[in-house]
Design goal:
mainly alpha, 15 helices, 304 residues, flat
């Protein structure tokens, strides 16, 4: 063997021994079937999660006597039982239609106010210098630990003294007050991640704080604002405790109206399933309509 051949032999041996060890037959089979098995598992879990929703949907189209005699799955084999009478009865009740309009008004107004005020406060805490800024932010964050239940009785007395108890604006004000701490905390942290070079370049171009907020910060904050809006919308729409405490029969949202209807469940079984499905399908539609922005907002701070 020549010197050149001897010198070339060790790298060849090293190259042959490099790389992952050979996979066994069982490992190759498991690797090929893992993806399919995972998909099947996820599909099964999704179907199980959607089963109660499907049952509620089918029940909302059944007559009261059919719901009393059998389960909702019987309608799958007897579609002639399905009828829209329950929806006609529900929408024919003024108390339900007024409550639905109240829910839309309370939820949309509370969500818009929380997003707008939270964005302004978050920008101020992230990029504006003022006296006691850090201590004010710590105070806002500290409000996150205050349970809603603790504030019910004190605020009910305050609202009663100023004439807001039982009013729609009182319910909105409560939701805005308890939604702002989380909104400020979330948006301040998001705004703080905006590159400082971008903000300084905009200021060098003559942009003031107002123009900087609307033309630079807000366009970048779309995913975060969408996530916050969805969280706030779902929380306010599904709320029952605050609605029962601060609203009356004229200002009650749909959740409170259905809760009061359920006290006579046997007499309202024809409209209860329909009202429950109507109360659930609207937030689901909002979530699925903005799910892409929601996921983008949730993941915005996860990857640097």
């Amino acid at each position: 063997m020549t010197d050149a051949t001897a010198a070339a032999a060790p790298p060849a041996a090293a190259t042959g021994s490099a790389g992952p060890p050979p996979r066994s037959l069982g490992s190759r089979i498991a690797g090929r079937t893992a993806g399919g098995a995972l998909r099947v598992f996820l599909v099964v879990m999704a179907l199980l999660w959607l089963t109660p929703t499907a049952g509620l949907l089918v029940s909302s189209f059944r007559a009261p006597e059919d719901m009393a005699e059998s389960g909702w799955w019987k309608a799958l084999t007897a579609p002639s039982e399905l009828t829209t009478k329950s929806y006609e009865t529900l929408l024919g009740k003024e108390v339900i239609t007024d409550a639905l309009l109240n829910s839309v008004y309370i939820t949309v107004t509370s969500t818009v106010l929380v997003v707008v005020i939270g964005a302004m406060a978050g920008y101020a805490f992230a990029w504006m210098d003022f006296k006691g800024r850090d201590w004010w932010f710590v105070s806002v964050v500290a409000l996150l630990v205050v349970p809603v239940q603790i504030a019910l009785i004190p605020l009910a007395r305050v609202f009663g003294d100023i004439g807001l108890f039982g009013k729609t604006f009182g319910v909105i004000l409560f939701h805005v007050g308890f939604g702002l701490p989380f909104a400020v905390f979330l948006l301040r942290n998001f705004f703080a991640e905006i590159p400082r070079e971008l903000m300084e370049a905009a200021r060098l171009d003559g942009a003031g704080e107002v123009r900087l907020f609307f033309t630079v910060v807000m366009p970048l904050a779309g995913p975060a604002l969408a996530s916050l809006g969805i969280f706030q919308f779902l929380w306010v729409w599904n709320d029952l405790l605050v609605a029962l405490t601060f609203s009356n029969t004229e200002s009650q949202p749909l959740t409170a109206a259905l809760a009061r209807q359920s006290r006579a469940f046997s007499q309202n079984i024809d409209t209860f399933a329909t009202g429950a499905f109507l109360s659930m399908i609207i937030p689901l539609a909002v979530f699925f309509a903005f799910q892409r922005q929601f996921v983008s907002g949730v993941m915005a701070g996860a990857v640097k």
